[in-house]
Design brief:
Elements: E1 7-8, H1 24-33, E2 55-60, E3 65-72, E4 79-80, E5 91-94, E6 104-109, E7 113-114, E8 117-118, E9 132-137, E10 141-154, H2 160-164, E11 170-182, E12 186-202
């Protein structure tokens, strides 16, 4: 069973136990991720914070993603579970934190792969500064975030404050597994996308 996006918001430890069957897409993404790194932040004027509204859909045009969003909670051990393995094309939002567009860092997680092949965030590490992430909200607005940087962090050196820390402007964190893969231990790292709100569009009625 793959729990590649399950994480602890208390300790910053991220658990990964998976035994996926490598497809060409999975193998290519892993090879690309092995290079690691990250680019300097893109400079764009942040948009003022929005009021709270639940996210319903995420779209990332640069990597051809469009997916529904489900709410996720912490378990009794303070860990945030991933979306169900039966729905690998769904992402999960931590509803105990800010909604996308509110002041603070909103967290959305997704699987990288499953036992049967690629999942929704397989190519998350391929994003670059300036790429857009669009989140459709229940209030009829679409919040557009620009990617500032993409980082890979070893799980035993995960920077809690940097990823989950308080921020005044509306920001977004996208996260999945990354780094080397071991059948017993899972992935060695996490890929984290840092983005901030730059525009808001109201859907036409």
């Amino acid at each position: 069973m793959t729990l590649c996006a399950t994480l602890s918001l208390v300790t910053g430890a991220v658990w990964a136990f998976s035994d996926p069957s490598d497809t060409p897409e999975v193998a290519a993404a892993r090879a690309n991720d092995a290079a690691g790194g990250g680019a300097p932040p893109a400079r764009q004027v942040p948009h003022p914070p929005l009021s709270r509204s639940l996210p319903v859909k995420i779209a990332i045009p640069a990597i051809f993603i469009e997916a529904p969003v489900t709410g996720l909670d912490l378990d009794q051990r303070g860990r945030l579970g991933a979306p169900p393995m039966s729905t690998p094309k769904v992402v999960g939002w931590f509803r105990g934190g800010p909604s996308p567009g509110e002041a603070g860092a909103s967290l959305i997680v997704g699987h990288r792969d499953t036992k049967t092949g690629p999942a929704i965030f397989l190519n998350l590490n391929a994003l670059h500064p300036g790429d857009l992430v669009k989140v459709t909200r229940a209030d009829g607005t679409t919040a557009a975030f620009t990617v500032d940087t993409v980082k890979r962090f070893a799980k035993d050196k995960f920077p809690d404050d940097k990823v989950y820390g308080a921020t005044r402007r509306p920001e977004l964190r996208l996260m999945t597994c990354g780094g080397n893969f071991d059948k017993k231990q899972g992935y060695a790292a996490n890929v984290v996308v840092f983005a901030h709100l730059v525009s808001v569009k109201k859907q036409k009625s």
